[in-house]
Amino acid sequence: MRIPNQTLMLYVLFISVLFVSCKIDSDRKVNRDKFKFKVEADASLFFRNVRQIYYDRESPDGKWQAYRFGNRPTEGTFINPVIVINWLKDEAYLLVECSEDLNEEEFLSLIIKSPYTGIDTIILKERGRERMLEFGSKIYEAIQHQDSIQVKIKDSYTSIFKSEADRENFRIPMSDYYRLTSIF
Questions:
Q1: Which of 37, 89, 157, 169 has the fewest other C-beta atoms within 10 Å?
Q2: For the segment 62-82, what is each residue's pLDDT rounded down to a tens digit?
Q3: How far is CA 28 from CA 46, 57, 76, in A?
């Protein structure tokens, strides 16, 4: 059976659009001046109707929900962003969740090596919504720039994202958080 050229072109166009849409917001810059925690009605509607299907949800008390990206790593050494939404206050927060071996550390310490900006060390010692958002944003930006990211475990540093899929599994929830809180 032969597929007509026009139909074939439409299939190619559709697949191209689908491929490009998977990397939504991958090149958008983070504007720290726009950091906020308020969720607007349109962003909430978009998240609930389009994006939340990609997440595992947990709501222990019904007042807030934690959204963990479905493709996130759950074994080995990892750091995952978790979107926490307080629907009663119309606010969203970013929670930095990590593997057991990293929980044993006194604080999270990452080294970001960039061919453009050099070496930067970022530390998350005290948790709080502003600190976790800034910490997650620095990792997000390093992922965008294809920088090397290593985490400290027992006095040595090891790569935190072993594959492009691991990097995307961190980047996507960050991007969804930015859209949810109108940073993008």
A1: 89
A2: 889 999 999 999 999 999 999
A3: 18, 26, 29
